Amino acid sequence: MGTFYYGGGQDRRPVGFDLDDELLAHLKQVIVAKLRRGESFIVTLPALDRGLGEREALWMNPSIPLRFVIDEADGHALDVDRLDALMAQADTPGGIVLVA
How many folded domains does the chain comprise? Predict the structure, then answer.
């Protein structure tokens, strides 16, 4: 299980989201690719700490600090089809939507 940290800086603590290592490895690649091109987008994650059915929508923008902590040291072979599916979602108005 890895953690995706969003935000932080200037006396604010980043918010951490626990995600499966393999999913996080794929999500990282898509986020980095989009932000390198200067493309902002939304990622919606389950807000597991608040209650069932709640979601948290995060605006991905180069000005927002992000950190990816993937627990598995060996890394993961990336699935091109999964990357393509995440990238296609990121290109929609609703962005990437992850489900629990």
Answer: 1
Check if the beta carbon of residue 80 is closer than 8 Å to that of residue 29.
Answer: no
pLDDT at 49: 60
| pLDDT of res. 73 | 63
Nearest to 16 by CA among 53, 52, 82, 65: 65
> Please, what is the average pLDDT of the chain?
88
Phi, psi of 57 (to 5 degrees): -100, 125
78: its two tokens: 């990336």
**Single-letter residue type at 8:** G
Amino acid (one-letter) located at 1: M
- The dihedral over CA atoms of 44, 80, 84, 49, expressed in degrees to the nearest 10, equals 0
Domain residues for 16? 2-97
Confidence of residue 74 (pLDDT cuts 50, 70, 90): low
